[in-house]
Amino acid sequence: MGPAFQPFAVPIFNRCIQIIHSNLQQAATAASDPNREMPDTDFLVTSLDLLSTLIQALDEMSVALVASARPHFFELLCLCLSVRPSLVNILCSNLMSDRILTMTSDNLHMHYWVTVPYLSSHNYIHGCLRLWVFLSLN
């Protein structure tokens, strides 16, 4: 991919964010209302996988996409970490790692306070350590 794909990346990225957000909202509603069915996690898995591919392919060009994501990219990923099945957790953790590798230390410091408390409270020590090592080296 690269610069030629960038115009297509924006709508695809935004659609994935929208699907993830919608799926999480539906899951929260279903958890509190026994008459509702839990949403299919296939959409969540596919969207997370596509986001990971986009971020890896666009590398530094993905910084602007992640910064513009609403709801906030890392907050959304933190919420995904609480979703079962474990495949969602694995994809989410991988996506965080992919994103961390393309971030400058200034951008990462900004998101550090959003992600680390959540990661540590949900026993994602690996993610916390990866953030800490990256920050200490940069």
Protein described:
- With about 140 residues, the chain is an all-alpha fold.
- It has one domain (about 5-105).
- The protein has helices at about 5-30, 40-60, 60-70, 75-80, 85-100, 105-120, 125-135.
- The two termini are about 30 Å apart.
- The mean pLDDT is about 75.
Offer a few descriptive terms.
single chain; 138 residues; mainly alpha; elongated
Summarize the helix and strand pattern as letters.
HHHHHHH
Helix content: over 70%
The whole-angstrom Rg is: 15 Å
Number of helices: 7
| Terminal Cα span | 28 Å
> Roughly what fraction of the amino acids lie in strands?
under 5%
Count of the separate structural domains: 1
What is the tally of beta strands?
A: 0
Low-confidence stretches: none
Average residue pLDDT = 76
Please outline the major beta sheet.
none
Secondary structure category = mainly alpha
Global shape: elongated
| Assembly of the depicted chains | single chain
Question: Strands, helices and their partners?
Answer:
Elements: H1 6-32, H2 41-58, H3 62-68, H4 73-80, H5 86-101, H6 105-121, H7 125-137
Helix pairs in contact: 1-2, 1-4, 2-5, 4-5, 5-7, 6-7
Tell me briefly what this model is:
The protein is mostly helical and 138 residues long. It has helices at 6-32, 41-58, 62-68, 73-80, 86-101, 105-121, 125-137.
